[in-house]
Please model this.
Amino acid sequence: MKADYKNWMPQGMINGFAAAAVICWVVFWCVNTFSGVSLQTVSKVVCTALFVLGVLLLCMTVWMFLMHRAFSYTGKRQMSKQIIDGIAEYVTVPDGGKGLDVGCGSGALTIACAKRNATASFVGIDRWGKEYASFNRNLCENNAQAEGVKNVSFKQGDATKLPFEDGAFDMVTSNYVYHNIPSKDRQAILLETLRTLKKGGKFAIHDIMSKGKYGDMKEFEKKLKELGYEEVQLIDTTDGKFMSKWEATWMGLSGSTLLVGRK
Model:
């Protein structure tokens, strides 16, 4: 049995866009062919719209294909694995301690952290929505079994209202989750995650922390320090740490930042 962490860019989505592009061009050909030589104005508008839409869908298909190839765990680039392993390097939990991974998806980060901290236990939580139907609790549990990792558990929950008491964990982690949550205040979601961290506990949270999505993160860093957090650091992961500036740009990951520290 081999772990299957899936792909952040689902193959089904790529196939869907490719099929839509083909349909647009087939309909374009039909309208153009069977409307006769002297096309009516409506037909011309329809043809133009179908052709342009087909081109846009093809461009999206190519972009998603390249994303899928870069994120693949079995491919050459393996960006997903590089990011997961890179975050896990910041994760240290004392013997008997507990860690929380918010938005665990297929369980990759939860399992990677558990592997590095065999004497601690980790909980992965996710809502596993229909947008990523192939990600679910059973998948996470199967991946943990395939990796021979027993110090993990998984449960369904909401990142904006975690079902845990204050100070329940020694470590909290997350990877590319909060920017997907519709919210006008993602800093509040960060605080909800950090709420579950006990005094002296550590955090390693990676996301697209651009100003448009998160507001002023430098001010947030200052706020955490004012609240008594011992260590707070914002690390740009697009400067070669997890990806190059060029990769971050064409992939739409500009602003990717790792927030690490200690409470």
